[in-house]
Every structure is written in structure tokens, then in C-alpha cells.
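Crash report, auto-generated. Payload:
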Amino acid sequence: MPYAPEHDEIPNPLRPGLRADSAPEPCAVVIFGASGDLAHRKLVPALYNLAVGAHLPAAFGIVGVSKSAYSHDEFAQDMREAVGRFSRTRPIDPEIWQDFAAGIRYVAGSFDDPDTFARLRAQLEELDRTRSTRSNRLYYFATPPSTFPTLLKQLKAAGMINSPFDTRFTRVVIEKPFGRDLPSARALNRLVLETCDERQVFRIDHYLGKETVQNLLVFRFANSIFEPIWNRRYVDQVQITAGEDLGIEGRGRYYEEAGILRDMIQNHVLQLVCLSALEPPVSFDADSVRDEKIKVLRAIETFDTPEQVARNVVLGQYAPGSVAGADVPGYQQEKEVAKGSRTPTFVAIRLNIRSWRWDGVPFYIRSGKRMPKRATEIAVHFRPVPHPLFGEGTTQPNVLIVRVQPEEGIALRFSAKVPGERFRPRTVSMDFRYGTTFAAASPEAYERLLLDAMRGDQTLFTRKDEVEAAWRIVGNILKVTESSEFPPPYPYPAGTWGPAAADELLAQDRRVWRRL
Amino acid sequence: MEETVSDAYGEPISAGATPHSGELTVQFDKGVDLARIESLLRQARERGGPSPETVSTLNLVSIHFSAAQYEKAREALEVAGTLHPCRLIALIADQGIEQESLTARISVVRSGGAITMERVVLSATGRAVRHLESGMMGLLRPDLPMVVVWGGRPQGDLLRRVVESADRIITDSGARPPSYLAETATLLVKGAPIGDLAWARIFPWQSLAADTLDVPDLREHRGNVRRARVVCAGAVGAEGLLLLGWLQSRIKRLEVEIHAEGEAEEEASSSMPVPRAARLGLGHVKLLEFVAPPATFTLRREKGVLISQVKGDDDGFCAHRTRLPPEMPGRLLALELKLLSGRDELYAQAVQAAAKLLAART
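Recovered output after restart:
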């Protein structure tokens, strides 16, 4: 949350017109769950890369907190190894690392123990003195959701959360999943907002940190040619795919609790739906953009009965199969997965957005593990031409594809005449690839999001009402599909695009999934 | 002011040269055969396989008055041109050689699966230099903005039309004597869309100065800045004057002072594996101080880090540090290419103020 200026405060005379981004204010980032995978693979490498790019304030520190026993130096060494393995920029620059590591501290302890927080507080005060972090705090909860209430209560009890009107900022970054259904999300929101102000809460969805996801907003609202056709009059259907070739990668316990609906749909995929479908925001500030996203979520028809769910939702679970030439086990053969598990690893859903712009245009979304390849994209299928001038079936409808990963970019499929005497159309693709057009390396999603959180910019973070609206959609599906009366997920061989029932979902509408 | 007028100011747009493998060369007897160049471009594109994608966001035209000058700039142009995909047309007008000749060297730069730069180097000697301008005009990709990188000195009317028709002209006043800023000020008044690498060089100083006045406990000093002082390395340079000019244009009734101290840093070894901040070149800024009684804000450069310190504030001493960005060939040019047309008003105001400062000193 940006510092709230007093009404008579003189504006900064040096700020207007500057082309260089401002560095965030000095601050300390506290990572709860510092010995975990997220801190090693993403957070600390992202912070290091921000240091490499000169985006961090030099008055900066990191405090890791977890149960594991480390000294400050051991933790710094552990982080160095993590950066060496997972950083986008390598090799490590010794000079930058030295400066970066000088601000790394570690506090070992249980989150239940008030003494952990007393020691954390002392450690942060030490950083304020030695690194001039000026009592600004960014708390990052890289921990399971079950720990969030404890962390918030302990931070509050230790007096470590400042008022949103204090000149010294306190911000809390919360990782997904934010709750496991609507009641738990509401309870968590209540708890969070008893401790902090909404302006201090940064609910992270790393998909929103991806350049291509942000580019979707630029693509839609910085080009005048697409907006007039971006509606039910010209769009036939929208297909959103978020597929992974990986399985659950040893996270059986987590996945058994979550499943694909909680893991992907409630957050990442519904965010893609929102960005594809939202109306132009009145301005590009956090609340204006989020206001428009929430309108989309509220306009999505929910499935209130088992019949509606059965008609519009297909669940799947991967069986043994082959991905990229390698045999892989089925979901039920994975570690820490119960035999006879009913947890879905695939879902296909037909959504309708009841709005002036979209009503009647189906949004088909599918997401799954152990797909043939990793692919996340939004495909906007336009209506076919009204009259087949060049012969029945000779032209395909136009499709605009926004590839989120990999090969981030945008492609437009259209018909062109094959050279020769006769008018023979052929579908061709005009392709814009992000990585080759702008040769500059894109920052990792976490780099952008951490920097925004340090700057207090909430545009790419989800708001309380947004989270709850997404849970309202997914929660209704879960209520039905998690009851024992609902049939178990359809098995599909690993390395395929889900069960045949997913194809039938579209076949009912005389459509097919885009071949990826 | 220490008037050290020398070619050693600042740095060239880049240093070093790269091998010229893969270039297709053609020599013309009469004028420039545009169709032949386009045909060679097609040939160069197809060398990498069937139907490679070509992306372009601008026409980048660089002007040089000797082959050596172009070689110095080559790597920077390539890097910046790859970051901002373009058709690069490098014009080398060497009138020092009497014999008339006109050649074109054609190549493409690939990045990933696409061609991100089409490069045409048109070199002319003797009287053939008169053909460069029309040749360049015929090679522009339609509809795209044209940015001219003016690395040399003007020589009469030669290539003036190129410069006048540009959407943006990028110079480096840090590579020239500071008095050149007065000329830039005159051109800016006439509306010339000038960009300047020396201006991009001081972005971190501007940013840190603004950040320091954004610190909540220090905001009370915003309306009270009275004096500013800049210290340059070795000699007063354009960067220091621009920094002071910027402050003067932003803060009313600001008393300013500029002088030089110490020496510039030696050229760094080129074998460093990790890019470092640019060296402190001749005329570059090493210290900025501004006073808002009773507080004194000091921003100084220590190797690759800028440090700001505040003394005399009621709330006591406070420090703020920011790392200078790693320097790579073409970085500053790539920064300036983010603005493809029009004038940077902040720069224009800073140059006017810097020119007045220069006039007052002389």
C-alpha cells in the first residue's frame, strides 16, 4: 500500500516525468517457510535477480524463518546454492551476492511459539540498525495455508503489524491456496482483515506475474482493432487450456487435499477467464482492474445442482501411460496417494458468462496433469464466414491464440489463397513470439510480483471479494463432485488430453478442442 | 568550470568490433540499386532456413563519418537493435577518401527463430556520399518510426535531410565538449526531437534523488531545497550539467554549483564474466549534494553503488543505496529507443537550464 500523503504535503518536485522506475523503499522481506521449496526455487532467486537488475533498494534485508536449525551463515550459504541452481541469471556475481548476503538473517523456531516472534522482532530491529531497512516489512507466507492463522495471530500479538496509516509499511504476501472452499476462504479473509487492512494484503497468483498474462491487457486495450470484435457478435467460443506434462511430483499429500479444481481452476484459470472477458477498466490502477475482474466472476453462471454439474463438468484422473516417450505411473500409483482416490487430476468445464458482451459464448476451460505437453493458452474462436464463397469446408474460422507458456506469444489463424490459378484458400498462421520479438529476457513472475509488493502496487494481486467470488464458482462444483454420489473421475492414460468425456462435452455443442 | 575540450569525453556508443561473417556485399557503379539490396536481404533472410519470421518495430539509422567510427558503434547498435527489433541502416560517409565508391553490406541478426534485425551498411567515399541520403530513404520500412543515431559531427549539409526527417535523433552529449549542450538547446527550442545517451546515463541519479525525497520522514524537506552541487570526475561533463539543469528546472530559485575533482576510472578489463556498472568516465557525475536547511542530502558514487546520506535532519542520519545497472554495449541506446518519437520534455527543460548555466559560467 503506498504511503498515504497528508493533505497538505508538497508533491515530490523530482518525481514527475522520470523515465527510470523508482526503487522500492528500504525494507526487510521475511520469508516464513524459508527452508521450503518455494523459497529455494523461486523467492530467493527472484530477489537475487532483482538485485542483479538494480531493482532492489540497497537498504534491504531478508529474514528466513522456519523450524530447521540454521545459523545466519548456513542459511545464506544454502540460499547461495539455491540461487546457483535456480536463478535466471547465472553465474552468481560475487560482488552482488556479497552485498545481497550481507542482509540475510535466519530465525529458527516454531510458528506456535511466541518466542520465535520475539527473536524475529529483535532480528528485524537489528536489520533496521545495520541495513537501514527503516522498519518497513514484507512478510511472505511461503507455508501451508493451515499456518496462516497462527502466523497472523503471532505477528499481531508481537506488535509486528503496523497500521496502514503508519509511514513504516507492513505488507503480507499470502500464497495460494487461499482457503479450500468458500466458507474457509471467508474465514481466512476475516482473520486476515482482523489483523491487517486489505491494502496491506497481497494474495499472490504467480500466473498474474507472467508477461504474457499482463500482455493480454495491453493486447486488448492498447489496440483498437480487436475490441470491436471481442464480443458475442463475433466470437463463437473461447477455449482456455492449462495443461502440464508433469504429474504431481511427489506432492501426493498436498494433491489429495487439493485436486485440480483447487490447484488450478479457482486461481490461475479463472484469472485467465477474467482477463479474457473483462470490460475496459476506467484506469490502470489496482482497484479499477480488480473491479472489472470481479464483475466477470460474478457474471459466471454457477452450477447449483448435480445435474448442472454433470452436464457442464468432466473430471478425470491419470492412469499409467507414456509422456514424451517415457512410461509414467498413474495417479493412484504415486506416493502418498490413496488407492481408490477420487481426486481429479483433470477437469473440463463449460462456463457461461451472463453479461451483455458474452452471454451465449461458451468458455471451455480444461486443465490437467500428465497431458502430452506443457501448454497454457487462450484461444478465441471467431464465428465462421456467413457464406462459403470458395466452397463448403474450404475455410476455417479465424482463431486468435494467446500462448501463456511455453513460447509465449500471440498467433492469428486466417485464410490465404494458395498461389496458383484457382481460388483455393488455406489456413495460415501469423505468429508473434514474445521471446524473439523482444530479445530482452523476461523477468520471472515472482520477480515482478515481489517488486510490486515492495512498491505497494496491488494490481496483479487478488482482492478479498475476487477470491470469494472465484470460490463461489468452484465451491459449488466441489460440493457436488466431492459427494460420494457423484461418479469418480474418468481415468485417462497419462500422455493424452484427458478422458473421452471431455471431447464429448464439446461434441454436444458440435465443437472440438483445439489440437495443441 | 574546468574547460577540458577533448574527444575523450564520456564513452563511444560502444567499443569493440565483431566479426562480419555472413555479410553479403555489393558494390554500385551508379547510385544505389535498391532492388538489388532488397534481393540480397531476402537472400540473407533465407539463409537460415525456410520462411523465417521477421519482426521490426522501427527503422534505426546510424550516421558515421568513417568506417572506424561505425565499427566502434557496431556492437551497441546490434544489441540495441535486437532488443528493439528493427531495420538498421548504417550510413558511412567517408569524404576523407577521394576515390568515389559506394558499397552495401547486407546481413540479418537472428534471435530465437526470428530475424530481429535486418542490417544494411551503406558506405560511400568521395563524391558518392551524395547518394547515401536517397539510398537510405528508399530502404526505410514503411509505417515504422525512424530513429537516427548521430554519433559523429555535422559536416555541412551532408545527411541533413536524414536528420530532419527523423522521428527521433539520439546523440551522446557526454562524448562531446559540454559547450555542445548550448547547440542542443537551440535545436530543442526549434522542436528537434533529440534524445541523449548522457541523459540516460544520469537516470539512476535522478531516480535516487527522487526516492530520497519520497522517504516518509524526509518529505518535509521537499519544499525547502535551496542549493545543489555536482562534482564530476576529472572534468565538468554534460552529465553533470544535465543533472544540475534537471534540478534547476524542477526546483525554483535553486542555487547551483558544479566542479570537477579527481580522475576518471581506467577502462575496465573486457574479460569480466559478469557485466559491471559502467566505469566512472571523464566528466561523469561522482557526487550530487542538495541542501534543504537544516538537512543536507549527499548522493555519491562508490564503485557500482550510489549511496545517499542525509545529515542534519531532525530524525537523524539515514542512508539509502542503489546499485547502478550492469553496463552492456547498447544498454543506454536501448533505453533511449524506448521513446520512438517526439521530445522528452524533461530533457528539453534540463538542457535549457544547463545551457543557461554554461552561459553564466563563461
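Post-recovery validation: The two ends of chain A are 41 Å apart (CA to CA).
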